Amino acid sequence: MRAAVTLGKKLLEVRDLPIPELGPEEALLKVKYTGICGTDTHIYEGTFPLLNYPLVPGHEFVGQLVDLRTKDPRLMNFKPNDWFVAQPFYSCYACETCAHGGDNYCNYIQVLGVHTDGSMAEYVKVPAKKLIRVKDESDKKLVSLTEPLSIGVHSLTKADFKIGDTALVIGGGIIGIMIAIAARVAGASRVVVCELNDFRLKFAQELGFVTVDTGDTEYFDQLMAYSDALGYDKVFEATGSAFGVKLMTAVAKRGGIIVQVGISTENHPIHIRSFSDKEIQVRGLRLQTFSDFKTALDIIETGKENSAMTRLISNVFPLENASEAMEFQVKDPCHFKVTVENENY
Q1: pTM of the model
Q2: Residues 84, 71: contact at Cβ < 8 Å?
Q3: How many CA atoms lie within 13 A of 248 on its CB side?
Q4: Which residues contact 239 (CB under 8 A, 6 or more apart)?
Q5: Which of 8, 41, 63, 280 has its CA 20 to 30 A from that of 339?
Q6: Cis (ω within 30 of 0) for the bond into 54?
Q7: 38: burial class by Cβ within 10 Å (0-12, 13-18, 19+)?
């Protein structure tokens, strides 16, 4: 099969590789679309803490079932050529964490495209129990956005989000926008996105969200005005920056919940007094639950936000041009989701 392989820092080539061999409780999918994630680019640029070369990147995908090795009766009606998405990680289901329902942050987790070969190839193998069937009539290109949207859905789950809550998203990148979309679907009374980048600010505005430019000297007053000076019920920090971590406690409502979504390799100071003064909570998250993954697919397949989701895919490259796609992802600041398509269909 043809596959994109990250061989080292800023070195990605499309090569011939063997089709993955299946073990027990695994499935083989023929991939149609794969989205490029920030993690993929960090690995490509050599800045990711878990570098594992050579590696086939990709964990945001949709494809057709080729083969299935399972004894699970719940999966017996899955048939070749059915369309699927899949949670892109292996969990051990034996450790203490998995035993308490934390398979998405398992002690021995293996994430596709990070710890093991991913989906930027003609074929990918996945855990059978992580498969979710896709409707034949669904727009498969949009369905490839299920994984990043599921991060947004899981963020709301972690926040105990309720209809009528106000939401502030700090950071208007792809995950920030996915959180904003999920919050709108969930019935937020107001969703505000704050961002410094002009392109992202305009994009969020065009999707119908209230935006605040954090480069404006009056940005904090604007943020508080949009919350009626109360602060926000739910705050989602989606940058991993020192600025975002400082801001999140300041704008949270008394009794509010903050979800730390942004990833950072650095330690940032946090305003501890806010916890006692306002009795706020900060919660972390990793990946998503199976239920949140299914909810994300449902949002896409029911078309609730398809006008916004369609705009998120800004560029599509053929698999043979995966290196060009990755370079574009790294160098061009004025885009959102870059998608790689297997044209051998």
Answers
A1: 0.96
A2: no
A3: 31
A4: 170, 171, 173, 176, 262
A5: 8
A6: yes
A7: middle
